[in-house]
């Protein structure tokens, strides 16, 4: 478990059948039940039985990381968050588009913290 995982606590996400169905690309009616376990999401499907989904694959996970970056109050906190995000992305092989998205948010927050008089 990584530092980000402990800070985000994804097992507390409000995950809906609609979100799962969109992620899996299936009709919502194919989902029998979903269980948010501590480290993984378990989805029971009508068409193929049980399926495990990593929280890290869900859009909620990326939004949570983005929120943590955007709420950093000091440059020191932001640098530390950047290190954690880099470790996370390397360890779990994130898609380059997600890495670029998180990098843009990080840079925007860094610039805002460096120049507080330029805040919108």
Task: Write up what this structure looks like.
With 120 residues, the chain is α+β, with helices and mostly antiparallel strands. The protein has 2 domains: 3-55, no CATH class; 57-115. The protein is built from 5 helices and 3 strands. The chain has helices at residues 3-8, 17-24, 59-70, 75-92, 96-114; strands spanning 31-36, 41-45, 49-53. β1 (31-36) and β2 form a beta hairpin. α3 (59-70) packs parallel to α5 and α4 (75-92) packs antiparallel against α5. The longest helix is centred in the C-terminal third of the chain and has 19 residues, at 96-114. The mean pLDDT is 92.
Domain unit count:
2
For the record, give the distance between the C-alpha atoms at the N and C termini, rounded to a whole number: 36 Å
Shape: elongated
What does the main sheet amount to?
A: 3 strands, antiparallel
Q: Rounded to an integer, what's the Rg over CA atoms? A: 17 Å
Beta percentage is 5-15%
Instruction: Give the strand tally.
Output: 3
Tally of helical segments: 5
Question: What spatial order of strands do you see in the largest sheet?
Answer: 1-2-3
Residues in helix, %: 40-55%
